[in-house]
Write a structure and sequence with these properties.
Blueprint (H helix, E strand, L loop, with lengths): L1 H8 L32 H19 L10 E6 L1 H11 L5 E7 L5 E3 L2 E2 L2 H12 L6 E6 L7 H13 L4 E6 L16 H14 L24 H12 L5 E5 L5 E4 L5 H13 L6 E6 L2 E2 L2
Parallel strand pairs: 1-2, 2-5, 5-6
Antiparallel strand pairs: 3-4, 7-8, 7-9, 9-10
Length: 289
């Protein structure tokens, strides 16, 4: 979420990306289990995710570089579902919430366990939610498509929830990736800006400039490799880019815990199981001698 965090930081927000309990390498068990597919308890799962968001916000409020008084929660998919749940029992100073394709229980494309239970959970959150909520879903979302999204938003708003719904145009092969993919930023940024403006949450007159890294792409790369290298430069640490000497093949890794881990993964992706010798040529936007 490096590129997404940068987008909000450019608007003046302290941007915090974190893992809820049980995701990735976070400690502890998965806190958002919802039971069986035949009888899921989505409301409980949503509240558990909301608790983690609230805990992060409470901690961040103690940091000296964070202004006090207002914050926003942004989430995608299960994180967006937790963000909707958060608005039902809002912590102190929560000013607004942004949810991209919220939902739970999608097992295969265009299939969700317990549609009725999921719709009921959204209705339950809407009964007490009064925080401004932006809900963005792409027309070709294959986790929670237009039919389901219409059910969810209607259930939420009919119960009393305050929601601004935006149906985005189809994005890629699955619109569920609209927020998660950096190329979606030019599409959702204007939507977010309009919402923030309408709720008096614009912090700056102009975006903070973020200069593009001035690093030349490896000469062996073809057009697709150069595009990948630019994406690599715009991504966050720890990261590494590897190539095959005198060849157009490459591999890169980002968001690793250490540079050593990034190097190892980049080399592995570059070789792709073949008997190929790859070399790391860039680490954290710095050329490797």
């Amino acid at each position: 979420m490096w590129a997404q965090a940068v987008a909000f930081a450019r608007r003046g927000w302290v941007a915090v990306a974190f893992l809820r309990r049980g995701y990735g390498r976070s400690e502890g068990v998965w806190a958002e289990t919802y039971g069986s597919c035949s009888n899921p308890d989505y409301a409980r799962a949503g509240r558990a995710g909301a608790e983690d968001i609230a805990a992060v916000a409470k901690f961040m409020a103690t940091q000296p570089y964070v202004s006090k008084g207002k914050w926003i929660s942004v989430g995608v998919s299960a994180g967006a579902f937790a963000t909707v749940a958060l608005t039902a029992d809002p912590p102190r100073d929560l000013a607004a919430a942004l949810s991209f394709a919220p939902g739970r229980g999608s097992t295969t494309p265009d299939m969700v366990c317990g549609e009725k239970q999921l719709t009921s959970a959204f209705a339950g959150f809407g009964r007490t939610s009064r925080i401004p909520l932006l809900w963005v879903s792409a027309e070709n979302d294959h986790f929670f498509g237009p039919r389901l999204t219409s059910q969810f938003t209607n259930a939420f708003s009919n119960a009393g929830g305050h929601v601004t719904f935006v149906k985005a145009s189809p994005f890629g092969t699955d619109g569920h990736q609209l927020f998660s993919t950096a190329s979606g930023i030019p599409i959702w940024s204007p939507i977010v800006d309009r919402f923030l403006t309408s709720n008096n949450l614009v912090l700056r007159d102009r975006l903070i400039d973020v200069p593009a890294p001035d690093v030349a792409a490896p000469s062996s790369l073809k057009s697709n490799g150069r595009v990948a290298f630019r994406t690599y430069l715009d991504s966050g640490p720890n990261k590494a880019f590897a190539v095959v000497a005198g060849d157009s093949r490459f591999g890169w890794a980002t968001g690793r815990r250490t540079t050593e881990e990034a190097r190892r993964d980049a080399l592995g992706l570059c070789a792709s199981g073949a008997n190929t010798k790859c070399t790391v040529v860039n680490v954290n936007n710095k050329p490797v001698d």
